[in-house]
């Protein structure tokens, strides 16, 4: 009886330690290559979709996915810890949406020095070449598109603009803001910009920011927002003042909830981006690196589309039927 048990345990031990070989045409390896995904938060629908895309691509490419996120947008310390943990766990590559695009760079350098492929998703680091590659929307273009749309939609009416931005030190927020200004045709500091507030992309903070702006400049008639949660917060504040039909709101992201808000008329237009594609492309790049050592490099534009049901002359876009069919695809 004991002899049989010992033989069984020995056979099991040999099976486990021998799994790395394979060779019969079927994978029996327990040493599955790992890929890490680090997002800014876990709760933002944008990053929820990104995680879904990464999980699907990891399964399709035979990788094990590790995930981590900050507790809030801007939580650099949590992202540093996540990088260190993932490097310690032996990941082949890390996909990251950096919360602090400058402060995260030393941790990324350590990971790359350890032989890990690091790819930024959505948000470039500063400098951009601190990562091996970037898969992202052209955030400047996204802002520029809605700036152009807003300019055409205002039809020559003098603008009183509020910008509900992200937060200092986050490149994606600055790029969208600057793109909007260029698209609208105004420079930073222009007197038509009557209020600017940070929202961290949060709906409640967006509402508070809009309330503050309305106290400062009650005659605001155009609102740019960093994303659709901030836009919906702004809409709530405007509705409380009975001004929701008088103020044009434009935004960026193109999530399903945000696209529905365009469809309902709460938001006039949004620039739609594609986080699932960012994640899928990033995971595929890590799989290629894990198999053959070929590193992804440079910037890959994952696309942006203006979504509106109120088309304007001279600005190309798609309607909300397209937007809902492709929201965060």
UniProtKB/TrEMBL annotation:
Protein's name in the database: Fructose transport system substrate-binding protein
Protein family according to the UniProt entry: Belongs to the bacterial solute-binding protein 2 family.
Keywords: Signal
Subcellular location(s) of the protein: Cell envelope
Keyword Signal: yes
Source organism of this protein record: Nonomuraea solani
Domain Periplasmic binding protein: 35-293
Matching InterPro entries: Peripla_BP_I, SBP_2_dom
Pfam family, one: Peripla_BP_4
Domain of life: Bacteria
Chief site of localization: other
Any single Gene Ontology cellular-component annotation: cell envelope
Gene Ontology molecular function terms on file: carbohydrate binding
């Amino acid at each position: 009886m004991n002899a049989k048990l010992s033989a069984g345990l020995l056979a099991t031990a040999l099976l486990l330690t021998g799994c790395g070989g394979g060779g019969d045409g079927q994978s029996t390896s327990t040493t599955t290559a790992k890929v890490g995904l680090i997002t800014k938060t876990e709760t933002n629908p944008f990053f929820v979709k990104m995680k879904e895309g990464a999980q699907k691509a990891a399964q399709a490419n035979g990788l094990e996915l590790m995930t981590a996120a900050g507790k809030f947008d801007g939580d650099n310390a949590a992202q540093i810890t996540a990088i260190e943990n993932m490097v310690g766990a032996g990941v082949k590559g890390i996909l990251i949406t950096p919360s602090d695009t400058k402060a995260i760079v030393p941790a990324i350098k350590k990971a790359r020095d350890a032989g890990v492929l690091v790819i930024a998703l959505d948000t470039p680091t500063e400098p951009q070449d601190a990562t091996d590659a970037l898969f992202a929307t052209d955030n400047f273009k996204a802002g520029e598109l809605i700036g152009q749309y807003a300019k055409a939609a205002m039809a020559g009416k003098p603008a009183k603009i509020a910008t509900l931005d992200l937060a200092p030190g986050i490149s994606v927020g600055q790029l969208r803001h600057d793109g909007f200004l260029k698209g609208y045709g105004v420079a930073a500091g222009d007197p038509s910009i009557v209020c600017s507030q940070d929202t961290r992309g949060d709906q409640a903070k967006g509402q508070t920011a809009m309330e503050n702006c309305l106290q400062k400049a009650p005659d605001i008639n155009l609102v740019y927002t960093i994303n659709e949660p901030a836009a919906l917060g702004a809409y709530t504040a405007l509705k409380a003042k009975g001004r929701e039909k008088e103020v044009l709101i434009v935004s960026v992201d193109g999530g399903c909830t945000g696209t529905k808000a365009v469809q309902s008329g709460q938001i006039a237009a949004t620039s739609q981006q594609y986080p699932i594609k960012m994640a899928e492309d990033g995971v595929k790049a890590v799989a290629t690196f894990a198999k053959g050592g070929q590193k992804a490099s440079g910037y890959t534009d994952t696309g942006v589309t203006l979504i509106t049901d109120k088309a304007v002359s001279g600005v190309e876009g798609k309607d909300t039927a397209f937007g809902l069919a492709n929201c965060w695809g």
